[in-house]
Each structure stands twice: as C-alpha cells, then as structure tokens.
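Hey, can you fold this one?
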Amino acid sequence: MKKRIALAVWLITGGAILAAALATASSWSARDTAAAMLDDAYARLEVAERDQTRASLANITALELLLESERNPSEDTIRQAARAAAEEQHAYRRAEQSWEEAHRRVDAAVGAGAKINDREVGALRLLRSRALIGSGRITTAVADLENLLEFLPEDSAEQPLRRLATEELSKAYFFGARLMRLTGKAEEEWMLVAERAREHARSLVEDNSPLISDDERRRHQRNLETIITANSLSLDELRRQANPSDCPSGQCRNLQLDGWPWQKPGRNRSMQPPGDGRGGGAGTNIVGGGS
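Sure. Predicted structure:
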C-alpha cells in the first residue's frame, strides 16, 4: 500500500484550508512501524486543524460581540461579549493542546523514519513546523524552517517543497510580528520580524519558475499584500481585526527579539536580516506599503 504525506497550507488571509499532497518517493509498506506512526500523526494533525478552525470562528464571534457592546453598551451586550471572550479563550487553549499533541506525534514519526529519503524527511519536518506554529512555539518553528531550507537541495525536484517551506516561514514571521505588536513589543523590534515576513513573501512573488501554477501565484501575491496591509494598520486597527485563520492565540512564548534564530550568535549569513542587517531592506519601508 502506498502512502502519501499530506501537508496543509493555510493562506495568511484566512478562509479555506488548501491541501497540498506530497507523494513519498518510496512505498511505506515495507516500513510498517513508520507508516503506522505517520497515519497516527496525520490523524492528530486533522484534529488540530478542526480545533483551530473552531478557535478561529470563536475569535470572529467574540470580536463581533465586543464591537457591538462598544457601539450599543448594555448589560446584555456586555454579558454576551464576556461570554464569547471566555469561549474564545477556551477554544484557543484546546487548539493549542491539540497542536502540542500533533507536534509530539509528528516528532515520533520523524524519528521512526530515520531511513527514509530526504524528500520524505523534508515533508515531515514541514508538517512538524505547522504543529509548532499552531501550539504557539513560533520562534522554534522559524528556526526549524530556516534549517529546513538549508537542508533541502535547490534542484528543480525540490522546488515545490522549498516554496511551501518558504511560504510557511513567511507566515510564521508574520504571525510573530503581529503577536509582538499585540503584546506591546517596541516598534523597532516587531518591525525587524515583520520585514523578514515580507522579504520571504516577496521572494515567492518574484519567483518566475514556469512550474508555479496561476493559483499559487495568486496566493503568493495575496499573502504579500496581506503582510504589507497589516503592517500599515495602527495598533488599535490591528486589535479590531480577526486573527488569521491559523494563527495561535496571543499567549505565545519566547517572542523576545533575541529569541529569533537570526539574532543568535553563530548563525550563518543566510539567516541574517535582509538589507543592511537591521531588518530593513535598502530603500524599503513595509509600514504603509512599498514592495
């Protein structure tokens, strides 16, 4: 029986989940243990995806009721908003727990697949990064994705996987910058992270490979526009925006600037911030546009 590794890729703009199936290069049938662990991991990822969708819907409902309570304050609207906020927090806690469990099981599958080829390892590592993002360990996911891009060869056979990893990396930086803003980090800190999101998204838009589909190009363009638009919002405007559909809650860990992989000593130059080394590309300013 031939197995397939399925990778869920979410648009930064939210909405429907796009599924991209990555076929394994060889049969899993000869490796029953690894195959069973992969099936187990993917089943947990599906649970986490469903819980994340519920959390996203709870976030939208809570935001709508909060805005209504501000427009028409009354005992009833305030009570409804408070109840929705509590339900939202519960939904995000449940989603985080599901992603934690998914991460544990994907990690186990990665360990069991020690003898599989690089493409399979890369696909599993990409799944693991998604679980890390969902559980709020964004800086860990970024480090994994940066290392994955170094691990994957740049030949044409690996380009689809490299693009998916780059898209996931851009999203992780975007979520991190957004949550840094919402938790009160200084502008000069979150802007460094936001710029990395923009640079990775822009690299996908500028990729002229004939193998990229029109749908993929449109998604890359929308993601870049979303990043630029989000960074042009005031903090008050940002707080009134619903979370991106697969973004973790605001209770994420280790979002200090010195926790990001390119800020740590010993990292290679490919991980350094773009442009002049301070996170801003020469002649660019993502706040207010400019791509």
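Residues 32-71 form the longest helix (40 residues). Let me know if you want another pass with a different chain boundary.
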